[in-house]
Amino acid sequence: MTSFLKPENALKRAEELINVGQKQDALQTLHDLITSKRYRAWQKTLERIMFKYVELCVDMRKGRFAKDGLIQYRIICQQVNVSSLEEVIKHFMHLSTEKAEQARSQAQALEEALDVDDLEADKRPEDLMLSYVSGEKGKDRSDRELVTPWFKFLWETYRTVLEILRNNSKLEALYAMTAHRAFQFCKQYKRTTEFRRLCEIIRNHLANLNKYRDQRDRPDLSAPESLQLYLDTRFEQLKIATELELWQEAFRSVEDIHGLMCMVKKTPKPSLMTVYYVKLTEIFWISSSHLYHAYAWFKLFLLQKSFNKNLSQKDLQLIASSVVLAALSVPPHDRTHGASHLELEHEKERNLRMANLIGFNLESKPDSREVLSRSSLLAELASKGVMSCVSQEVKDIYYLLEHEFLPSDLALKVLPLLNKISKLGGKFTFASSVPEVHFSQYVPALEKLATLRLLQQVSNVYQSMKIENLAGMIPFFEFSVVEKISVDAVKQKFLSMKVDHMKNVVIFCKTSLEADGLRDHLANFAEQLNKARQMICPPDAKRSKHGSLLPTLPEVVAKEHKRLLARKSIIEKRKEEQERQLLEQEREEESKRLRLLKITEEAERKRLETEVELRKKQRLKMEMEEKDKEEAQAILQEAEKRFKRKGKKPIIDGGVISKKTLMELALIEQHREKQEMEKKLQKLAKTMDYLERAKREEAAPLIEAAYQQRLVEERVLHEHEQQQEVELSRQRHAGDLNEKERLSRMMGHKEIYQERVVSHRQAEFNRLRREREERISRILQSRRQERDKMRKLKYYLKVEEERRQKLREEEEARKHEEAERKKKEQAEHQAKLDEIAEKKRRREQEIEEKIEREKREALLGRPAEPAMRAHEPPARPLESRPAVAVASTAPAPGKYVPKFRRAGAEATAAPPPEADRWGNSGSRPDGDRWDRGTSFGGGSRSSSSWSSSRNSRDRP
User: Which helix (H) or strand (E) holds 870?
Assistant: First the structure.
């Protein structure tokens, strides 16, 4: 596997291989690049590589390579640029289709080229032999050699693309387009087998889509766009199935469409439903399900009448006539009459499936046969107003066959109407996809219905009739066909009649007055007689008994009117309440029905799975038993044949015996025969040993004599060949001597020419060697100068770098020393400030203690012994103490004094003169002393500056 740093290199390498004709190596190179884990990030180059890759796959018909490459490319660009994958897949399908069309056109051109007038001149012997051996014509062979491989590859292309796009929600449109193109491929080339496989593939994709719902990029069928795409694909599948006349696949497609609609709980557009019901009518008609065919036409009529506002009168009449004729074509007798329980259950399940397909819900009905029946359908046609829309001929034949009682000339009146109906029909203008409707398809069923109606009415009137008269009343069929129809009707309990060919009569066996037809006929006859009697003898008019009530009639009417109004309001309220209760009840019933339906479906599914598993086990058991019986019978027959061949009496003379016993007997017999065979082989080996020894003893002297004769012959042959070789060597030596003598005359010329050539070449060699040495010396000189220059440059750069490094180190050392010095000065300055602050704090504390003590003495009115300190002056006289207290309590410039202390000082003495807060006050007492007391030898700063610095530190 070749590794490339860039994808462009792989593409260039592949193009080079293609140019030299190595397409397989180019394809393998691109395949290794695409499947490599190194190139997982999408880029535009990968798209160009994929275009080239699919072109190579199509040219070489490598479907497996194409599938692997597309899967890897889908992983690369699924989350980044899915449109690139779409373009690559479109290009892939376009190339495959184009190649298939080219192969088809080439085969057609080849067939046209072979289509000549003189066939004998064009036929070659090998062509004739090939045609006789293979049994194929020229076109078949050309199709097999040229067209079939490309068609196989195109079909594989469609399958590959569908497999890649089946779970991709971002490329649903491309998936639908691929499915449509595959359908058209099957339709164009009449590929029924591939169409079935394609339908199964799409069906499995949808099933897996519903099974694995936790996939990340899974399409959402609840989205309208996705649902529309899937429905369009299924409807296209249904159309192609009907055009190819694959009716079983068409029915499965209808079930797929119905399942899709039930899955998403949404009805498709009316145009699609029109196609759906029309295709249902075709499928049911082909399958001879006339009842469901009629119901499908009825649903189509209701759909068009409800949703198609632009429906013309002609289309409405055409649909209504089709509905009525389809309903009349349903056999009037029940085919399930007298059927077994299993057949009835199967028919019930079938009715449920068909009713779901045509949009009827039979789950809540006790008996589906009461809902889906001919009589209920005709009643619905009358209630929905279908009969008012049909043509006059259809209406006449409907009343003749369903409501008239004409036992003698019913068929004769129906016959001209059937001739008119067979010519009616046409194409719908509202749906171009719907094929043309012909009423002639219903004529055989209507003729059969008319025959049954005539037989039914005749059986109500006559007890017996000649066969000639009955055959003359029915112009549609021969009497043999009428007899078959009547036999089917009698089997279904629709008629009761017998045909006596001995007497040439037909006997109707209705002798009971309780028969339905006779009872209805007599009841109708009685009603008509009663009407006639009343018309002939009308009853007498009776005298009115309400004459006395006429005066009070207005009051009674008014009271009755009020009572009726009150009753009406009560009834309306009751109706509203009842409707509300009915709605609630219907909702509850619907929820219960859904729950029961789910439970029933689950139980039915489990039951079916259990039955399938049980039937499978029973079938396997029966097959194993049958196989054992067959093997036992075969073993028994083999044993009998063997015993008969040997002339022995068989061990078993008839009877039933198990396979195990037969196997044991066969094993015993085989073991016995094996022992006998071993004994025979030992005896034969002994005999063969004796014979072989005797042969070798007799052949030994003969072999020795032959060997001695062979030695003599080979010695003579060797001497002869040696003599020939010596003679040949002598002749060859004489020839060589002659050749040497002939060539020796040219030796002088040869030496002269050789010396001239050698001298010339020696001079040329010396010249070239001098030039080479000069060139080498120049190169060495230039390289030496270059090395000197580079050495000087490196030395200069090294010196410059060392100088810069030294300057940087000196600068860093200077900065470090400066930082250390500043740090040291700052530490010394901070220590001095802390010492000054500590002294100032102690002095302030002493002053505050002194002031407090003097205050206490002043308040108590007695002298107190002041605490003498070594640094304080002696106490002053009593009269000067307040002044001293005032002076001591006076705040220094810039010093903060609390409010309560300022208040005490003002109460005992007058406020001091105003002075500058930051300067020295000359009139303040003891100002010089305070300044001198607060000035230290550490510098020339005043007390105000130190106070301001302390206040700034104490300030928050």
Answer: none
